[in-house]
Amino acid sequence: MAKGLQVEPIGEGLYRMVDVLGNHAYLVVGSERALMVDACGGFANVAAAAREICELPVDVAVTHTHYDHFGGTAFFGRAYVPVAELGRWEAERALCLRVLDQLVEEGLVDEADACGPRDCAAPEELPLEAGHVFALGGRTVRVVALPGHTDGSMGYLVEDARVLLSGDAVTPIMCLFFAESQGVDVWRDTLLRMQELPFDHFYTGHHDHAFCRDDLPSFVAAADFVAGDRGMEWEHNRLHEFRGILHLAPSETFDADSPDFRAVIEPWHELPPRKRRRRRKVAEEAAGTEAARSDGEA
User: Would the pLDDT of 51 be above 80?
Assistant: First the structure.
């Protein structure tokens, strides 16, 4: 198998690939063609891995064009891209190369290893719109709009398997801080529309866990929580220009790696001063109680 990738089957004719940073790609295999949904960050040759799994022609399509989903498309030479996100390759390529330098310095990637954005030409971008159907032979994959994380975010519905490949459209740490993000209200509408789609499980761009329809209300609750929460400042651990306001929604765990964790990161803005009225109120009530006790004793 291609170096730097973990590959495993997650269903009949359905495979998951995970690179060194935990970026996920999915290969859907029919009887005549295969479809690669996302392509990881370009730090491992997902095209070679796909060829080892099947000898069929492989189309590649992305849920959105962030480098950690888009970078590996260079190994294929062409990719279906949401119409709203065409033309973003060079900016994402630059981010990928910055992260590559970090990975080499940390010893997680060898400098001689394959890197799509560094070693290959920019992929040809084929415009993709919601409603498009990939006919793979014996199975179809339907494209659905899932905006919020980005303006053009798409999901891929593997209809016979009742599986939705949703990229970053809904995740335990929901990132809505990018310039191309559409905000919490748009994301909430997407969650409600997802409840009407014919799937049993959905897989994200960064989690092995198979989420299900019953998980959606907890994400809606996280979206609703944002409006009344002050939040706290947050910064990306590798690309420090990415900043936002983190809202930790009530959940059963404080483990950010847990599929049960819920948080939303909005665009960065100046935070209002922390409220101190509650503390003063408690002190005033305590003083009043003490005064009443003294009066009673007198």
Answer: yes
